[in-house]
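tool_call: predict_structure(chain=1)
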Amino acid sequence: MWTFDPGAELRGRIATGGDGSIYFITRDGVLHGLNSAGKETMHRDADGLSPAVLPDGTVVAMSSRSELAAIAPDGAMLWNLEIGEAGPLATTDRAIYASAGADLVSVSTSGALNWRVSVGPVTAAATTPDGVVVGTSRGAVTALASDGAVVWTFTPDGGFSGSVAYADEVVYAGSLGGGVYAIDLRTGNPIWHVNSAHAVTTGPAVAPSGTIFAGSDTIYGVSADGQLRWKDPTLKPGEAGLFALGYDSVFDAATGDVGAVLMGDGSYVWTSRSFGKITTAASSPSGMLYVGTSTGRIFAIR
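tool_result:
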């Protein structure tokens, strides 16, 4: 639908708002905000790799190497808080979860420090109805309650790798030893495990239909009950990741500068080499796909 060139490469992930807005940080230290039409609505200094967006549209990002800041959609600074060198990972309507070295930090949406817990260097996070679940590289998957209490830890074969996701009382996590685990949110016990030939590098990503997508040596499609539905050897997932899109599909930023959308049954919706090298992507609840490239250009596609 539109493209936007910020004039510099992207540092990290694209964060999406519920109104179709997106936010991202470029390597020249600028936090950009775009509305659903691709018009820039925010342009201000920022640190860190990626911002996050609260349900009310407030943007959180590092304003310096050690300060977390909340910014209104119109660009007004709401608050900032010293938390140490960190970055926001996930948000709810009550809390912001950020990594700070080997600690996981919870900050209230009004800017007060809730708690700080040592869990190891967090590389992925997903919110749950009463807290958050995080994965540490080559380490464990840990579930924490909203008050910071550790509910359980689970270490996949070879250690955690890829991403964590949550849906319907189940946590999904990739493993360095190969495959995807489904873990009971209440107990931390594994429900099932689907093997892959190599370590999971991207995903799991869960579509609203219940299909789980993961990238390893190839792309795997798994049903919610742990049955391998298909695997596609033609496109090897790239480093940018897999992104659930719509009700039952996924966007794959594959190697060879290929972008592809696959359905839950493994069929292709489209493939394209027109983006160039894809470094990140994101999808909105409305089904809009945002693709970020190595030049910094962002493509918005419906």
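agent: The CA atoms of residues 34 and 149 lie 37 Å apart. Proceeding to next step.
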